[in-house]
Amino acid sequence: MKVLITGGKGQLGQALLRVLSLSSAHRLYAPDHSVLDVTKMPEIEQNMEQFEPDLIIHSAANTDVDWCELNPARAFQVNTGGTYNMARAAQIFGSVFVYISTNFVFNGAHTRPYLEDEKPLPVNIYGLSKLLGEELVAALLNRYFIIRTSWLYGGKSNFVEQILKMLQAGKKLFVAGDQFSAPTFVDDLSRALSILIQSERYGIYHLTNRGFCSRLEWVQELLLYSDYKAELTEVDSAYFPNPAQRPHFAVLGNRRFKDYFGLELRGWQEGLSFYLQEYSPLGRKREGGR
């Protein structure tokens, strides 16, 4: 299978390359933004004609939530318009399409996990730009997977590494205790996708590591696996003057993947432990607290 991955230099793009390359059945092409700008249809057509992918995994997006809030036109151009362009290319070339979306399509008003068939209602520009992308994919294509996930980490710059750098610098940490979701290791998500794309069970899937926590609990768990000492203070989301509102309880229920394949991603604590030991530039050399 020939697989084109947009956003090839991103943390998910790099994880997909690592995981999918383990199978000789896949021929992979993961251009970065300089080669494939999803807002430019001529570049898309050129890449499609040269590679002729059987499947497209569209992971390219601007995921900076506050930047999107301050730059809505550009956010919609990249996240919504770019998705339309790639879905249209998939339609023309007959490619199966995988769209990476987000838990931020929901407003976070629930106190239970959101399931795949629930009505989205985003509270910020980023979530809206991704939701409109979902709707365009569903309108244009029959063979598609829409993947909602949450709190991805695993690249060079992510929440875990940012916290580790602050711990290394001895900074006092203020962390929100009222935002809940599932930290999801990009390699675990990629492995689930490698299973999904071998099937024809198209539709919307929620894929996150099992369980959920607050951002505060995420940092507390991180401290357990390191020998850093930190002064940690719990605050509400309102403490941070961010332009974009965050949903408070944006936890996804991964029901469809479990029902169809009998599988779940490992627990978020286990994924975090593995990442710190095997991948983290700051975490791998430290002796765990467990």
Walk me through what this model shows.
The chain has helices at residues 11-20, 41-51, 65-70, 72-93, 125-140, 159-168, 186-196, 215-224, 255-261, 268-278; strands at 2-6, 27-29, 55-58, 96-102, 144-149, 152-153, 173-176, 180-181, 184-185, 203-206, 213-214, 232-235. The chain is an alpha/beta fold and 290 residues long. The chain has a domain at 2-155 and 183-211 and 251-267: Rossmann fold, CATH 3.40.50.720. The protein has a 6-stranded parallel β-sheet, with helices on both faces. A two-stranded parallel sheet has the order 6-9. Helix 5 (125-140) links the parallel strand 4 (96-102) and strand 5 (144-149). Helix 1 (11-20) packs across helix 7 (186-196), helix 2 (41-51) runs parallel beside helix 4 (72-93) and helix 4 (72-93) runs parallel beside helix 5 (125-140). The longest helix has 22 residues, at 72-93. It is globular.
Shape: globular
Class of the domain at 2-155 and 183-211 and 251-267, according to the CATH hierarchy? Alpha Beta
The major sheet is characterized as:
6 strands, parallel
Strand content: 15-25%
Would you identify the regions where 5 or more consecutive residues have pLDDT less than 50? Answer: 285-290
State the separation between the terminal residues, measured CA to CA.
Answer: 41 Å
Helical segment count: 10
Widest β-sheet, arrangement of strands: 2-1-3-4-5-10
- Please give the share of residues in helix: 25-40%
Instruction: Using the CA coordinates, give the radius of gyration.
Output: 19 Å
Structural class estimated from helices and strands: alpha/beta
Provide the succession of SSEs. EHEHEHHEHEEHEEEHEEHEHH
Tell me, rounded to a whole number, the average pLDDT.
94
CATH superfamily of the domain at 2-155 and 183-211 and 251-267: NAD(P)-binding Rossmann-like Domain
Instruction: Give me the CATH architecture of the domain at 2-155 and 183-211 and 251-267, please.
Output: 3-Layer(aba) Sandwich
> According to CATH, what is the topology of the domain at 2-155 and 183-211 and 251-267?
Rossmann fold
